[in-house]
Design a protein that fits this description.
- Helix content is about 45%, strand content about 0%.
- By secondary structure, the chain is mostly helical.
- The protein has a domain of about 70 residues.
- Helix 2 packs across helix 3.
- The longest helix is centred in the C-terminal third of the chain and has 15 residues.
- This is Insertion element IS402-like domain-containing protein.
- It comes from Streptomyces prasinosporus.
- InterPro entries: IS402-like_dom (IPR025161), Transposase_6_like (IPR052909).
Length: about 100
């Protein structure tokens, strides 16, 4: 799968430091959503949680995620690898009661 999305990843910025490894960052983002854990609980081997969170937001704004989804979907459709079965995940990540907007005091 990485071979399909690697060419779609944004290049390093012209100025400033090079970005952290895209593959490790995608693994960090996937881990966060797979476990429904807070960003701060990201394992050290997946890098900084700040890096992963910033990259997630940046790629959402600049359209990187849409490009990746469209390319992977087109490749799977061309290979006749899509059954078009809809699946709904019933996993719920609940906020703590104090974070639910209850009245204070």
């Amino acid at each position: 799968m990485w071979d399909r999305i690697e060419p779609l990843m944004p290049a390093d910025p012209v100025r400033g430091r090079r970005w952290a490894d895209h593959r490790r960052t995608i693994e960090a983002i996937a881990w966060k959503y797979r476990t429904c854990s807070p960003w701060r609980d990201l394992p050290a081997e997946l890098g900084s949680f700040k890096t992963a969170h910033k990259r997630l937001l940046r790629w959402a704004v600049d359209g990187t995620w849409e490009n990746i989804f469209a390319a992977v979907l087109a490749a799977a459709d061309a290979d006749d690898d899509i059954g078009w079965t809809a699946s709904v995940d019933s996993t719920v990540c609940r906020a703590h009661q104090h974070a639910a907007g209850a009245r204070k005091g």
